Amino acid sequence: MKAFQVLFMLLLTAAVADGQSFHLGKCQQPSVQEDFDVTRYMGTWYEIEKLPAIFERGKCNQATYSLLADGTVKVHNSELLPNGKINSIEGVAKVKNSSQPAILTVSFFKGVPDGPYWVLSTDYQSYSLVYSCFRLVWDVISQLHDELASAGVNLNRLTVSDQTGCDQTKGMK
């Protein structure tokens, strides 16, 4: 298990109504990591940039992944809220189709459709570029930006995630 992964770019888009940014139209279909190995992906990832997401209200956002006995992945997301409290949620991710292991779905709530989690690019140690888009009915960073732009993602709405003053959150669960 990797002890320290430094880059995790999460791009969430909800198409229909630009991240959790909302826009009309279809979700982009970017290429995903070839020969993705979910086992090598386990560990804690720290968010660097994201498109705005209504479910993230704090800073020091991180995600910890651990392999479960049945081959699914335990997902533990956490953030430090402005009031100093830690907000966290747990869910389960699973590979949707074994022929495309970099395309996963994540479930946090029963009765709510699973969310997509596509690993576009990772070296399993220092960066991971993740894309998630779903239709609602209702130097490295520069390289990753280029990959997103070539996939048709609008980068103008990216915001830098605040990872300062996070010492008390090391290993938060």
What is the gist of this entry?
By secondary structure, the protein is mainly β.
CATH architecture: Beta Barrel
Overall pLDDT metric: 82
Distance between the termini: 17 Å
Low confidence ranges: 1-6, 12-20
CATH superfamily: Calycin beta-barrel core domain
Task: Report the principal-axis shape.
Answer: globular
CATH names the topology as: Lipocalin
Number of domains: 1
Largest sheet, spatial ordering of strands = 1-3-4-5-6-7-8-9
Question: What can you tell me about this protein's structure?
Answer:
The chain has one helix spanning 141-150; strands at 2-15, 21-23, 43-50, 59-67, 73-80, 86-95, 103-107, 115-122, 127-135, 159-160. By secondary structure, it is mainly beta. It has a single domain (2-169), classed as Calycin beta-barrel core domain (Lipocalin), CATH 2.40.128. It has an 8-stranded mixed beta barrel with strand order 1-3-4-5-6-7-8-9. The chain is globular and about 40 Å long.
Feature tags:
Lipocalin; mainly beta; disordered N terminus; 10 strands; eight-stranded mixed barrel; single chain; globular
SSE layout and pairings?
Layout: E1 2-15, E2 21-23, E3 43-50, E4 59-67, E5 73-80, E6 86-95, E7 103-107, E8 115-122, E9 127-135, H1 141-150, E10 159-160
Parallel strand pairs: 1-2, 1-3, 1-9
Antiparallel strand pairs: 3-4, 3-10, 4-5, 5-6, 6-7, 7-8, 8-9
